[in-house]
């Protein structure tokens, strides 16, 4: 069973936004727990390359991806290009000193994982960041290309997801500091129910579940983010995208038309377009219309996450438009 927020699309979409917030919280909890137990949380260089099978995938890849990007090397004993690529990845895992974890998966012994990731041929290299899967490259690649790809991966993981990697200690015992799953919070059951409702397309059920959490804890970050996401999906589910975009093009100063188009922009992953559209509309409207646009823009900020650089920039642009 796929855990919540596992996406095989390779696109950082709304689910990834939510996962980013969860990943930051889980990483902080894991580090705090290690400190509470008197340990450093450091791993041995030998722990930076692991063999993973289907049984251990959730714990060793998905859970670890909340703290460090996990690069997956799909390989097989009979694959000659794999035998050239795998040693390079293993060497770079040690050289990058905890900025990513390398998980090796033998496709012959783990056909289900191969199918789940849509691997068409090997060698194939994927990454999982905060529970989100994305393809990196397939087939032969020279070391410079691999380094460039890994550099981009660790940068995105840090800037977008707050994942700074693992602490490595050459003197640490191998296997001595596994990434522990954080303890379940008091609202875990409700949040799981909300996530399951989202996966099933029951947006009303997801909204109610998140509202139940917020009724007891109005500042709960995951529930706030989940509710904003579910309400956004509710708003767009019955829209005719072509009609909405045509109306927005014909009525550039119509607040309702631009708000609807911005919702579609965000659901489609066009974050900057959504923000820019509403900021332009703030500048061209007044009174109640302007306030409605401003409020919707603040709601979309909540969906993307207040720490996201795109939100930070758009918030500054909104302030300039208003004042």
Q: Tally the helices.
A: 13
Overall geometry comes to elongated
Largest sheet data: 5 strands, mixed
Strand content: 5-15%
Mean pLDDT: 83
What is the secondary structure topology, with strand pairs?
Elements: H1 14-36, E1 49-51, H2 57-63, E2 70-75, H3 80-95, E3 101-106, H4 111-116, E4 124-129, E5 132-138, H5 143-161, H6 188-199, H7 203-216, H8 221-236, H9 241-250, H10 255-267, H11 271-284, H12 287-304, H13 309-322
Parallel strand pairs: 1-3, 2-3
Antiparallel strand pairs: 2-4, 4-5
Helix pairs in contact: 1-8, 6-7, 6-8, 7-8, 8-10, 8-12, 9-10, 10-11, 10-12, 11-12, 11-13
Kindly list the characteristics that best describe this protein.
323 residues; 5-stranded mixed beta sheet; 9% strand; elongated
Can you give a write-up of this model?
The protein has about 325 residues and is of the alpha/beta class. Helix content is about 55%, strand content about 10%. The protein has helices spanning about 15-35, 55-65, 80-95, 110-115, 145-160, 190-200, 205-215, 220-235, 240-250, 255-265, 270-285, 285-305, 310-320, and strands at about 50, 70-75, 100-105, 125-130, 130-140. The protein has a five-stranded mixed sheet, with helices on both faces. The protein is elongated. It starts with 13 loop residues before the first helix and ends with a helix.
Give a nutshell description of this structure:
This protein has 323 residues and is an alpha/beta fold. It is 56% helix and 9% strand. The radius of gyration is 22 Å and the shape is elongated.
């Amino acid at each position: 069973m796929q855990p919540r927020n596992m996406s095989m699309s390779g696109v950082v979409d709304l689910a990834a936004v939510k996962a980013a917030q969860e990943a930051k919280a889980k990483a902080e909890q894991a580090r705090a727990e290690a400190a509470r137990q008197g340990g450093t949380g450091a791993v041995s260089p030998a722990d930076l390359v692991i063999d993973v099978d289907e049984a251990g995938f959730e714990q060793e890849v998905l859970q670890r991806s909340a703290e460090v990007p996990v690069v997956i090397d799909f390989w097989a004993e009979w694959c000659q290009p794999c035998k050239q690529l795998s040693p390079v990845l293993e060497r770079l895992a040690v050289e990058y000193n905890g900025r990513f974890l390398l998980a090796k998966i033998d496709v012959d012994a783990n056909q289900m994982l191969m199918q789940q990731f849509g691997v068409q041929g090997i060698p194939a290299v994927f990454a999982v960041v905060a529970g989100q899967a994305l393809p990196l490259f397939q087939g032969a690649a020279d070391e410079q290309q691999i380094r460039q790809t890994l550099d981009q991966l660790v940068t995105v993981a840090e800037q977008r997801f707050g994942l700074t990697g693992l602490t490595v200690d050459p003197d640490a015992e191998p296997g001595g500091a596994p990434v522990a799953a954080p303890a379940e919070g008091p609202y875990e059951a409700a949040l799981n129910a909300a996530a399951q409702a989202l996966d099933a397309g029951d947006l009303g059920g997801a909204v109610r579940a998140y509202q139940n959490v917020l009724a007891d804890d109005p500042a709960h970050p995951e529930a706030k983010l989940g509710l904003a996401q579910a309400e956004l999906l509710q708003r767009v589910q019955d829209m005719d995208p072509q009609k909405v975009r045509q109306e927005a093009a014909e009525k550039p100063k119509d607040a309702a038309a631009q708000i609807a188009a911005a919702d579609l922009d965000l659901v489609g992953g066009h974050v900057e377009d959504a923000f820019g559209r509403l900021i332009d509309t703030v500048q061209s409207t007044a009174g109640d219309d302007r306030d409605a646009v401003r409020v919707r823009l603040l709601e979309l900020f909540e969906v993307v996450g207040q720490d996201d650089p795109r939100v930070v920039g758009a918030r500054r642009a909104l302030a300039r438009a208003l004042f």
